[in-house]
Amino acid sequence: MENEEIAIFSMRESRFIMNDFEEALYTSMRKYSLRQLNFMDDVAYEQILEALQKSMQVCNLAGVNSIQHFKKVYVYDAEVSTMHIDWQMTKKGLNLMVMQTPSMNRKMARWLWEMADL
Fold it and tell me: pTM for this structure?
């Protein structure tokens, strides 16, 4: 006769696994960063941060968790031994930022034109 084992199921452990899965999913979707905003040459860093804040506010007002689209990361530059803040973003988050940026140039106009076609 074969003995059966009883598997212990805990909702607590399952919640942690689900949170890990969700975080991995969101991380995989956040492919962009502030470094990729090279077409914003004439935009001050303060304006970029303001556009970021407005984009997160859009998410919150629309009932979307901004963490899904924006995540603060710390980047260490070994050459100059400094650390700076960057932001990982989804494509939608990046497009929101571009729309919130007050300055306009040829590259940004091209980006907006491409977003209008989505």
Answer: 0.71
Please report, for residues 6, 14, 18, 24, 39, the alpha-carbon distance to residue 10 in angstroms, rounded to integers and kept in the order given: 13, 6, 13, 22, 50
What pLDDT digit, counting tens, does each position of 31-89 carry?
A: 999 887 766 667 788 888 899 999 999 999 999 999 999 999 999 988 999 998 999 99
Write down the H helix ranges in the chain: 11-29, 45-61, 91-100, 106-116
The token duo for 95 is: 């497009």
Give the residue among 75, 74, 85, 89 at the shortest CA–CA distance from 29.
89
From residue 17, alpha-carbon distances to 25, 67, 74, 96 in Å are 12, 18, 25, 31
